[in-house]
Amino acid sequence: MKIIRFLKDDHKKTGLLNGNNITELSRSTIESINSKNIEEFQKDTNYKVEEVKVLPPVSPSKIVCVGLNYRDHASELNMDLPEEPIIFMKPPTSAAGHLANIIYPASSRQVDYEGELGIILSKEARNVKSEDAVNYIGGYTALNDVTARDLQRKDGQWTRAKSFDTFCPIGPCIETDLDPMNQNISLKLNGEFKQKSNTKNMIFNVYELVEFISNVMTLKPGDVIATGTPPGVGPMNIGDTVEVAIEGIGMLKNFIKKG
Q: Half-sphere exposure of 254 toward its Cβ, with a 13 Å CA cutoff?
């Protein structure tokens, strides 16, 4: 199932996405997205994607990100593989939806794309074992970990560079039925492929990440884990269009605009 959140007539709604069509649901909590009886919540109301404003598929209390988690990315950078996941955070205010603008801040001269697979938590997770992690995952989404690279280098730590409003587009939907271990992931900038890999190249898989992070902090329903980016990271400019595509999920599209 592809779960999508959207705004219609100033009302936030949840629906099932099927191609370009949305079927509204009467129940919208993240805890219910894996319901076996999701059909019970379907309404007769249908929309086209272009008739609504697509929202981020969740409203997370936090977005936990993983750095250097693809073997081919580490090889590209000539870096040793980390022994443990390298984690950092983006604030929930950085979230943006499918077709939203990414605002290029006036304080930066280099804003980079980083296409990633996102994990969506469906219930509270604390000290979870990797073998049990699947029971805490509601689904998966596409994500762009936008980064002001020059500010990251200047600051020597990552908070400012990762935290601007709109610096974490998420979407367009949550796919609840996905094998996260072997999915193609790519990113296009202005229609040209810049990143291409597969989630099988992750150093730490999604279940290992849930274990590691939930042993550091309590994860809440709707929280997002950004699982790291493949090789090919590079800059975006004002006027560009960026698209993150993940097999089985779909394509997250955003536009770079002047701040």
A: 35
**110 CB-contact burial (10 Å; exposed 0-12 / middle 13-18 / buried 19+):** middle
Please give the model's pTM, rounded to 2 decimal places: 0.95
Instruction: Tell me how many degrees the CA angle 55-220-166 measures, rounded to the nearest 5.
Output: 35
- C-alpha gyration radius of the chain: 17
Query: What are 227's strand-pairing partners?
Result: none
Check if the beta carbon of residue 113 is closer than 8 Å to that of residue 221.
no
Nearest to 143 by CA among 258, 86, 46, 63: 63
pLDDT of 59-71, one tens digit each?
A: 999 999 999 999 9
pLDDT tens column, 201-225? 999 999 999 999 999 999 999 999 9
CA distance 105 to 188: 22
Omega before 82 within 30 of 0, i.e. cis = no
